[in-house]
Amino acid sequence: MKRVAILMAAVALPAMLLISACGDDDDDTTNGGGDQASGAHVEATNASAKSPGNDVASVYVTLTNHADAPDYLISAEILGDKAGQVGMVQIHEVVTEGATSKMQEVEKVEIPAKGELQLKAGSYHIMLMNVDPPLAEGDELEVKLNFENADPVTVKATVGKPGQDMGATSHN
Amino acid sequence: MNWKPVPLALLAIVGVVIGVACSGDDDSAGATAGANPTAYTPESDFMGVFVTPALPKPDAVLTDTSGQPFDLRKETDGVVTLLYVGYTHCPDVCPTHMADIMTVLEKLPADVSSQIKVVFVTADPDRDTPEVLRKWLDIFSKDFIGLTGTQAQVDAFQRSLSISPADKTDIGGGNYTVNHAAYVMAYSQDNLAHLVYPLGVTQETWMNDLTILVKEGWKQ
Predict the structure, then answer these.
(1) Are A128 and B91 an interchain contact pair (Cβ–Cβ within 8 Å)?
(2) What's the total number of domains in chain B?
């Protein structure tokens, strides 16, 4: 089932790009893909990125699922002029047991029906690895988010300093 | 292996406090923050997570970022010390903790912030050489102390704090993740950590507690 969903998304994306290339109504900084047939629609807002100055970085974003069924963030990729700097992208979660925390890759993350998923420090993040050269503060990343049901969404995330002011809270 | 019950107890406490922290996580900067803070008055009793029994300071001699031996107990004896075990290839929890501490120290008046030492111990000595550690810590503060050692030393250090030792997990592309501390430990002048701070605590919590720890010390 998952494989089919990914294929559908892959087909839907070029179609969406074609439409947005022709029209003037699309703002790719904060928007949601809509799948008319299923009603799947995920909106991405408050995207930000943090880089602690070496070859890793993280991206945070708030995802809102407007559909009546759960959807899933299944992957992310970096587009645009920073794409060549980023070697690997995974979805990670921080797992804490007692005094110990650890980061691990997850296959997908649920965005509840008519609900919200906040990627934030200490929870889920999009992990960028083998970043060379390292990202600088102020760099703008174009992040494409792929979902199981909804069409992909592309957001812009500006690289900021680590700290809770970026991504970890519900600041605007 | 007598440390096992402790993490479970801590887990329960941390869970409760994270819930509290999240319910009012905004406006964390506090009204007293300014470019040149001269005074800060704590508004309540300790707001961090209590640890019972308190965590003793690990009896360890590690290597600092200039390559010199660093005896943790001797070098931080009687000084309020924030201790965290992490690694520089951690993009999320570790830099957030360090950045939060840096921000709070900048906001506190100098008579408080100058009485606090910050020690970061790497859980990943293979990648975190003294040079790598220094460069990374300098992003936050040149005063932060960075410690490394052999994997065995670092593992023993983590065990003494009830943290499961580094267990490298390959995530592809030559990358791996390691276990690290779930929270920052705050040692008071009695050289015990009665309080810990999980990710998500507000700056107000830090400012409140650090001020009390420096000026009045640990009190029940």
Answers:
(1) yes
(2) 1
Amino acid type, B218:
W
CA distance B33 to chain A (A): 15
Structure token digits, residue B65: 């970022």
Backbone angles phi, psi at A23, to 5 degrees: -95, 175
Segment A42-95, tens digit of pLDDT:
999 999 999 877 899 999 999 999 999 999 999 999 999 999 999 999 999 999
Of A52, A57, A100, the CB nearest to B88: A52
Closest chain B C-alpha to A39 CA, distance in angstroms: 32
Nearest CA in chain A to B15: A98
Q: Would you tell me which CATH number, out of the four given (2.60.40.1890, 3.40.50.12780, 2.60.120.200, 3.80.30.20), belongs to the domain A2-160?
A: 2.60.40.1890
Q: What is the pLDDT of residues A119-160, one digit of tens each?
A: 998 899 999 999 999 999 999 999 999 999 999 999 999 999
Question: Could you tell me if B216 and B108 are in contact, meaning their C-beta atoms sit under 8 angstroms apart?
Answer: no
- In chain B, residues with a C-beta closer than 8 Å to the C-beta of A98 are 6-8, 10-11, 162, 164, 182
Cα separation, B17 vs B103, in Å, equals 21
Mean pLDDT, rounded, for B164-180 = 89
